[in-house]
Write a structure and sequence with these properties.
Blueprint (H helix, E strand, L loop, with lengths): L27 H14 L4 H18 L10 H14 L6 H20 L26 H16 L9 H12 L3 H5 L6 E2 L7 E4 L11 E4 L4 H12 L10 H14 L9 H14 L4 H8 L3 H22 L1
Antiparallel strand pairs: 1-2, 2-3
């Protein structure tokens, strides 16, 4: 898949051809207004725009919203981050802390790249080692048990009609690592069967601002057999899955329960991690994994760190 993510790391920000109408005397408030316009023009995701703007307003609350941007130094930013962690009195999760560091680097990197600031005070910001907890994901043994259960459901029994949906869902998530919302948005014609030996799933987004998340994902040819059984059984009129998102969660829960797994282990998020770990163990190119997940390069940093730690944990357990 081609790189479509608009969010790039601060050191990759291109210099602006038209510098924003700001001077070093401009306030944080004034700079934020133009920064929001810049993010919108660059196609930043809506949630990212909201989070970055909120982080800059928080910086303004700490330094004073009228603080001239030219008078903000690295020490000010380090003090701000220390305040967030230790003095604000509001919990700052590792994920929020990492995002706020990124916000500072993108914001001040933009001001420097656009020629507003002669130097970037965020370059030397202290990156504290604040690690977010690792997800608890099903092992390959757990997945084998779950797949055996969903296969039995697919085949049916004396008192149970054949039901391909649990096996369709479980194998789809393990092969693609898609999110729940992406699964719910699939329609049958998003599945390209032109080449039966190499079928593909196209992930589509109706919101133009989220088009950068669109991508194509390869499916195993055998999955089409499960799909055909499912289509005959459920005859979906529009989207592939005719039930609610909550019902899909219940399907995974029931499979996990019957497989004897801990409640909650078989979830959309955990299966996304399990699918990604399979690619990681297989030494798939890291950028291919990132694009398969539909992640920006900024978001990939934390994901990659967790994958490295999960792999290290697995190695320790196997020694």
């Amino acid at each position: 898949m081609s790189e479509q993510q608009p969010l790039i790391s601060p050191d990759q920000l291109p210099p602006s051809q038209d510098a924003p109408p700001l001077s070093t005397d401009a306030s944080i408030q004034a700079a934020l207004g133009l920064f929001e316009t810049h993010m919108r023009d660059e196609g930043f995701a809506i949630n990212t725009m909201k989070a970055f703007a909120s982080d800059i307003r928080l910086l303004g609350k700490y330094l004073g919203i009228g603080q001239p941007i030219g008078e903000i130094g690295t020490n000010n930013l380090n003090d701000f981050l220390k305040w967030l962690l230790e003095e604000r009195g509001v919990p700052c999760s590792p994920k929020s802390y990492a995002r706020r560091v990124t916000t500072l680097k993108v914001f001040f990197g933009w001001l420097h790249g656009a020629g507003v600031l002669p130097n970037d005070p965020s370059t030397a910001v202290i990156q504290r080692s604040v690690k977010s907890p690792l997800p608890t994901i099903p092992s390959e043994a757990d997945l084998e048990k779950a797949l055996a259960v969903s296969q039995r459901m697919r085949e049916g029994g004396q008192e149970q009609k054949p039901d391909a949906r649990p096996h369709l869902l479980l194998t789809l998530l393990l092969q693609t690592g898609i999110k729940k919302g992406e699964a719910m948005a699939i329609v049958p014609n998003h599945i390209d069967r032109t080449e039966p030996e190499q079928p593909m799933l196209f992930i589509r987004y109706a919101n133009p601002r989220l088009r950068y998340k669109e991508r194509k994902l390869y499916l195993e040819p055998e999955w089409l057999d499960i799909l055909d059984e499912y289509l005959v059984q459920y005859e979906p009129p529009d989207t592939l899955f005719t039930c609610t998102p909550r019902n899909l969660e219940y399907i995974l829960r029931d499979v996990g329960d019957e497989a004897g797994l801990d409640r909650g282990l078989l979830s959309f998020e955990n299966l996304r991690w399990a699918s990604t770990m399979r690619d990681w163990r297989a030494n798939v190119e890291q950028d291919d994994i990132r694009q398969k997940l539909g992640l920006s390069k900024i978001t990939w940093r934390e994901t990659k760190s967790k994958l490295e730690r999960l792999a290290e944990k697995e190695r320790e357990l196997n020694e």
